[in-house]
Amino acid sequence: MHVEPGSTVGALQAALPLGALENRILLCHALGMTRVSLITQDTRALTAAEAARLGALVARRLAGEPIAYIVGQREFFGLALRVTDAVLIPRPDTELLVELALERLPDLGRVLDMGTGSGAIAVAIAHTRPDARVCALDVSAAALAVAAGNAASHGARVRFLHSDWFGAVAGERFELIVSNPPYIAHADPHLAQGDLRYEPPGALSDGADGLSALRTIIAGAAAHLVPHGHLLLEHGYDQAAQVRALLDEHGYTDVRSWRDLADIERVSGARRAAHS
């Protein structure tokens, strides 16, 4: 998209062809300005280089690229996290999983975050609870690099492991296991829509019915939980009943689901039985 050099910040906030929030985000990113400075410097005129930079960013968004990838970050649980196209973009819905985890985490508790991606869940827990011993794993080395950078930038102590599910934590036990695994079925039409078109397919879909990763975690988690330890899983909008059935089938106790801000059953969880 062409942006005319000499256009003012104030005029562009109204004239750019995106929503008000996205216009503001891209202006701040292109010009290195804060939200406050957009207001106080609304008569500032863009140089040719700034206009070209802004025009390129807007064109990328108009083509469908997610804002988070364009600006390279997304806020999650009050933390600015770096994101790249190697990781899933953190969603507000997943903050429910963090809140539930923090409610159940004992002092000096051990936490395992499976399929950490950007590290959003692990970093949020470790940042909020510095006493916790947080371990996070992912099969993607590129994702782990992003996650480690996010932990470092927020002073969050997290042990990162390159692992295909439980492979790298053999013999270890945790008070809490959490995961936001790939849970979209391979034939789901949403994969070809919106931001999902740009996100790593392996972080979105299991390539099957959407439940295979959840089955793997549920089947293996009991061996890595202390007695009465908690397992919390994010899942799809229509999968809660199936996830609860899987938890029941594997002998977990206190099986239940929790609703997100949209009143959708978004997280299901349970506890390991004392003698399982």
Automatic annotation (TrEMBL):
Listed EC numbers: 2.1.1.297
Pfam family, one: PrmC_N
Residues given in the record as substrate binding sites: 180-183
GO BP term (any one): methylation
Any GO molecular function: nucleic acid binding
Keyword S-adenosyl-L-methionine listed: yes
Reaction(s) catalysed (UniProt annotation): L-glutaminyl-[peptide chain release factor] + S-adenosyl-L-methionine = N(5)-methyl-L-glutaminyl-[peptide chain release factor] + S-adenosyl-L-homocysteine + H(+)
Cross-referenced InterPro entries: DNA_methylase_N6_adenine_CS, HemK-like, N5-glutamine_MTase, PrmC_N, RF_methyltr_PrmC, SAM-dependent_MTases_sf, Small_mtfrase_dom
Keyword presence, Transferase: yes
Positions with a binding annotation for S-adenosyl-L-methionine: 115-119, 138, 165, 180
SUPFAM superfamilies: S-adenosyl-L-methionine-dependent methyltransferases
Record key words, sorted: Methyltransferase, S-adenosyl-L-methionine, Transferase
Domain Release factor glutamine methyltransferase N-terminal: 12-72
Domain Methyltransferase small: 95-188
PANTHER family in the record: HEMK METHYLTRANSFERASE (PTHR18895), MTRF1L RELEASE FACTOR GLUTAMINE METHYLTRANSFERASE (PTHR18895:SF74)
HAMAP family membership: RF_methyltr_PrmC
NCBIfam families per the UniProt record, alphabetical: hemK_fam (TIGR00536), RF_mod_PrmC (TIGR03534)
Its biological purpose: Methylates the class 1 translation termination release factors RF1/PrfA and RF2/PrfB on the glutamine residue of the universally conserved GGQ motif.
Similarity annotation: Belongs to the protein N5-glutamine methyltransferase family. PrmC subfamily.
Name of the protein in its database record: Release factor glutamine methyltransferase
